[in-house]
Amino acid sequence: MTGFNISIIGERINPGFKSTKALFDNSDIPGIQALAIKQAEAGARYQNVNIGARALTEPQWMAEVIRAIQTVVTTPLSFDFPSQTVQEICLSSYDPAKAGGELPIVNSITEHRWDLMELYGRFKFKVVMMASERVEDGVAKGNKTAEEIYGTARRAALRLKNDYGMPLDHIFIDMSVSAIIADTEGLNRSTIDAIKMIGADPDLTGVHMMGGLSNIGQQLPPKAADGSDLKHCLENAFLSLTVEHGFDTVLGTPWRGYQRLADDHYVLAAYRNFLEQTGSNALRAVRKFYKA
Q1: Quick one: how far is CA 259 from the chain centroid?
Q2: Tens digits of per-residue pLDDT, 67-126?
Q3: What is the pLDDT at residue 97?
Q4: Residue 199 CA: distances (Å) to CA of 42, 134, 206, 209
Q5: Paired strand residues for 123
């Protein structure tokens, strides 16, 4: 089957990966540069940069990492940290000219955590907006229904457009993807339905929808009985159901590649079945899938 027309934000410059953590622990700039080159050569459209808690204790080291990456690749960068102070250092260190004039991405804001937008104006950037929570009566609340996710995405995107003059195609709506083994509330179904609603809204034409797909297969065995990459098949199943509705960006490992599953593929059929289940039925469906 053919691949998808999607963009990959390379995720590997992140201490959540043991090999990358070792690079950070040893302040191995050449190793980090090699990783950036590998992601670029594998087709990453952007590269996410997250050095963990060290960004707070040694923010200038994060600046050094950014400058070092930009000496070896032209890929625009995404800065992954909720601190305004850290983001300001990242944006100050980034040179758009070394990325072909491309703006960086600030990752991320929510309706409850909007302070990073105070940097807009002094700096120009694209932004990741989390649709997983809303503000209600001044309190942050998690979104569980498609209507709540869609409503949050629409409010935030139009606020960014109307109040800040941000082009819609500079906005990435992060659609939370849940682990199927723990999804007893139909959260993945809500996410997919919300993607369809956003994609069908003419006022939101141009926004990007994105997500980190590795959550889907958490705690599932990596391989199927036939030796195929089970977790990756589940990621492809999600994309097979959402790309046509406007989901166009993945935070992921670029050399894994993504392929559309045939409509009769057993993993796609199983994933469709998961989406219809809630409560104990959802857990039984996962156990059945394990056995298969």
Answers
A1: 18
A2: 999 999 999 999 999 999 999 999 999 999 999 999 999 999 999 999 999 999 999 999
A3: 98
A4: 28, 20, 9, 9
A5: 120
Give the domains, in start order, of the chain with CATH numbers.
7-291 (3.20.20.20)
Instruction: With residue 140 as reference, give the H or E element that holds it.
Output: strand 139-142
Q: What pTM does this model have?
A: 0.95
HSE on the CB side for 135, CA within 13 Å? 10
> Helices (DSSP H) in 26-120: which residue ranges?
29-41, 54-57, 59-70, 84-93
pLDDT tens digits for range 128-187: 999 999 999 999 999 999 999 999 999 999 999 999 999 999 999 999 999 888 899 999
3-state class (DSSP) for residue 60 = helix
How many angstroms separate the CA atoms of 28 and 32, rounded?
A: 6
Neighbours of 31 (CB within 10 A): 15
Phi, psi of 221 (to 5 degrees): -65, 145
CA distance 284 to 114: 40
Q: Residue 47: CB partners within 8 Å, gap ≥ 6? A: 9, 10, 13, 36, 39, 40, 69, 73, 75, 76, 77, 78
Name residue 133's amino acid.
Answer: E
Question: In terms of DSSP bridges, do strands 7-13 and 247-252 run parallel, antiparallel, or are they unpaired?
Answer: parallel
**Alpha-carbon gap, residue 7 to 43, rounded angstroms:** 9
pLDDT of residue 1: 42
User: Tokens in use for 213?
Assistant: 């797909």
Say if residue 14 is exposed, middle or buried (CB neighbours under 10 Å; 0-12, 13-18, 19+).
Answer: middle
